[in-house]
Design goal:
The complex is a heterodimer of chains A (119) and B (135).
Chain A lengths: L1 E6 L8 H14 L3 E7 L20 H12 L2 E5 H6 L11 E4 L2 H9 L2 E5 L2
Parallel strand pairs in A: 1-2, 1-5, 2-3, 3-4
Helix pairs in contact in A: 1-2
Chain B lengths: L19 E6 L8 H14 L3 E6 L23 H5 L7 E5 H6 L12 E3 L1 H9 L3 E4 L1
Classes of the chains: A alpha/beta (119), B alpha/beta (135).
């Protein structure tokens, strides 16, 4: 099955991003395809390359980057939500890209299931 | 990608494919940004010529209540935008009856024409959708 994923919360404060990541990983292991992860609302913070958690904790941002790279997942950050929160190309981690909400709608159209992770 | 269109960027061909999208709004219009950013997705979806419905449940029913005054909290009152939905052919607006009544609201309190439906009918509508996004 082809999944689209929507992440609506930022890292660490909420579990949404962790759950989305674990879901994506599990789905891939089962042979499903994740074609895009769309980051919206505070979810855009999942793409900041300035993120530095304590070394004994999971690195949520780098973890998304690696999953994206390993499995060719399109990691898209909403432009309007990002600009509102100070996420720009200069602090965006490589592997993510900033684009419009149309990418979310398109993901809804093209995937078999769009799974929403939020508060 | 342009700001004017909310960054619509059609890289892949989705032409002709129409799905049923339902946006479920459960949160109050102010206090968090969910309602405003949900409305932004609703408008973009209409630009993709999809079959869009919007539902208001729980505190989400306050999003479409008439007479919102936000000057005191220095936040933009975006409720007039709901009136613009009709211009985008988004006319399927549902308010859950139980949520409305619990909050002492009635059908004439809303800024736009909405269909007031019970929880069971809301469940049936959700069942019939292809894509549901909950904010």
């Amino acid at each position: 099955m082809k999944f689209g994923i929507l992440v609506n919360e930022g890292p660490y404060t909420h579990q949404a991003s962790d759950t989305a990541y674990l879901f994506a990983k599990a789905a891939i292991e089962k042979g499903h395809k994740i074609h895009r992860v769309f980051f919206y609302h505070d979810g855009v913070y999942n793409s900041s390359r300035l993120t530095e958690p304590p070394t004994d904790d999971r690195h949520i941002v780098n973890r998304w980057q690696k999953l994206g790279k390993d499995h060719h997942i399109d990691l898209v950050v909403c432009v309007a939500a990002a600009l509102r929160r100070g996420i720009k190309d200069e602090n965006l981690l490589e592997g993510f890209r900033i684009s419009g909400l149309g990418q979310l709608v398109e993901s809804g159209i093209q995937s078999d299931r769009l799974v929403v992770f939020g508060d | 990608m342009t700001e004017a269109t909310g960054g619509i960027d059609r890289e892949e061909d989705t032409s002709g494919k129409v799905k049923k999208f339902l946006y479920v709004n459960r949160k109050a219009p102010y206090g968090t940004i969910y309602a405003l950013e949900s409305l932004e997705v609703v408008l973009i979806t209409a630009a993709f010529d999809q079959d869009v419905s919007v539902a208001f449940l729980d505190d989400g029913v306050y999003q479409v209540v008439k007479g919102q005054h936000t000057k005191g909290i220095d936040v933009k009152n975006f409720s007039p935008t709901y009136r613009a939905l009709e211009g985008y052919d988004i006319e399927k607006l549902y308010v859950e009856k139980e949520s409305m009544e619990t909050r002492g609201l009635k059908e004439s309190d809303f800024i736009v024409p909405v269909k007031v439906i019970g929880a069971q009918e809301m469940a049936d509508i959700m069942q019939s959708q292809d894509v549901i996004m909950s904010f």
